Automatic annotation (TrEMBL):
NCBIfam families: era, PRK00089.1, small_GTP
InterPro entries reported in the protein's UniProt record: G_ERA_dom, GTP-bd, GTPase_Era-like, KH_dom-like_a/b, KH_dom_type_2, KH_sf_prok-type, P-loop_NTPase, Small_GTP-bd
Subunit structure and binding partners: Monomer.
Key words, A-Z: Cell membrane, Cytoplasm, GTP-binding, Membrane, Nucleotide-binding, Ribosome biogenesis, RNA-binding, rRNA-binding
Physiological role: An essential GTPase that binds both GDP and GTP, with rapid nucleotide exchange. Plays a role in 16S rRNA processing and 30S ribosomal subunit biogenesis and possibly also in cell cycle regulation and energy metabolism.
Region annotated G1, chain positions: 12-19
Entry superkingdom: Bacteria
Residue ranges, annotated region (G4): 123-126
Originating species: Psychromarinibacter sediminicola
Topology with respect to the bilayer: Peripheral membrane protein
Compartments (UniProt record): Cytoplasm; Cell membrane
Protein's UniProt name: GTPase Era
Amino acid sequence: MTQRAGFVALIGEPNAGKSTLLNAMVGSKVSIVTHKVQTTRARIRGVAIEGEAQIVFVDTPGLFRPRRRLDRAMVAAAWTGAADADVVVLMIEAHRGLTEGVEAILEGLEERAGDRSVALVINKIDRVEAPKLLGLAKEMNDRFAFDETFMISAEKARGVDDLRAWLAGKMSEGPWLYPEDQIADLPMRMIAAEITREKLTLRLHQELPYQLTVETESWEERKDGAAAIHQTIYVARDGHKGIVLGKRGETVKAVGKAAREELTAMLDRPVHLFLQVKVRPNWLDEAERYSAMGLDFSDGNA
């Protein structure tokens, strides 16, 4: 059989379930999943195999109304991911329906979709009754000419196989873009930093999830097969440092333990994780911080 390959962009509002779907499609964790909005920053590519087709997923940041430089860079990255893809998948939440945010995305699609295929994915279908689902599907398709509509629960992997099979059929003939055993094109250093940031976001709740970033400073392969990973957590204020550290360092210790356990399971070997917290008041305006997150600093000027 002939090999096929191509790129699929997952777009939608923050918290629509894009990262959960990406991980379900790939069969492994390559993207942060939290209940906080705007947690995905970089366009993370996950690679899935379906028969002879290789599907490269671009998990874009959620599309929302930007207020800060980081927000603008994230939104620009999302639309760039859509423009670079062969197929675009718009995810919406079944219980929220056609929101103002979704309406704005549809307007953007009308301008940017061109002749590429666009599929609608209605996620979290277990939250609403069937008649409401059918009504929402009709309302969305009246609003935009989608090539196909799928109703799924990304969290429970319901409907995911049908979507993956359809996407495989949309890939163009040609050699695979990545080795068969590669599930993401992010360096492990960045994936490790994202895992630690996820644990921080989960632990800190609403306190300062968007005012911090994590960078992997060094990665040492030890003779005993273990990996020694040193990471820095950058925060914007002195008060934030205290929150991240916690009383007697309990918060950062708990975050480090959770991140280390996940990295150990992912790498299937011992991991020694060392975290330090640094205050950088203007990190949100430093080009190198954006590069480390896979974002374009200049996009923040838009």
